[in-house]
């Protein structure tokens, strides 16, 4: 027996959340973004600093950058699954910008 209250023949769709809720979710994610992005920035900066003081070429810390990007992308996927599409788009955009910025230091 089907107990949904929609009209027969129409699928039940999950509607996206409002713009204000998307903004609140994004603002709630900002501390997480700062911590994870700051860790990646610190790892890249420390590698560059150590290489410059050792007279070597800096090597990209791939594990740290990949882990940071993966955590931020996972947060974006979780937010998208929760129907906060606007917050997810911003999360993915910030992740992409951070990764491009970190990788640009290594050519």
Automatic annotation (TrEMBL):
<protein>
    <submittedName>
        <fullName>Uncharacterized protein</fullName>
    </submittedName>
</protein>
<keyword id="KW-1133">Transmembrane helix</keyword>
<feature type="transmembrane region" description="Helical">
    <location>
        <begin position="88"/>
        <end position="106"/>
    </location>
</feature>
<feature type="transmembrane region" description="Helical">
    <location>
        <begin position="62"/>
        <end position="81"/>
    </location>
</feature>
<feature type="transmembrane region" description="Helical">
    <location>
        <begin position="21"/>
        <end position="42"/>
    </location>
</feature>
<keyword id="KW-0472">Membrane</keyword>
<keyword id="KW-0812">Transmembrane</keyword>
């Amino acid at each position: 027996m089907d107990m949904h209250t929609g009209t027969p023949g129409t699928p039940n769709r999950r509607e996206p959340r409002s713009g204000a809720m998307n903004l609140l979710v994004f603002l709630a994610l900002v501390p997480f973004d700062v911590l994870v992005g700051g860790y990646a920035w610190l790892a890249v900066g420390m590698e560059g600093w150590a290489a410059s003081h050792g007279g070597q070429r800096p090597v990209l810390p791939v594990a740290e950058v990949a882990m940071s990007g993966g955590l931020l992308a996972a947060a974006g996927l979780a937010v998208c699954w929760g129907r906060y599409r606007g917050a997810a788009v911003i999360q993915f955009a910030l992740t992409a910008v951070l990764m491009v910025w970190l990788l640009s230091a290594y050519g």
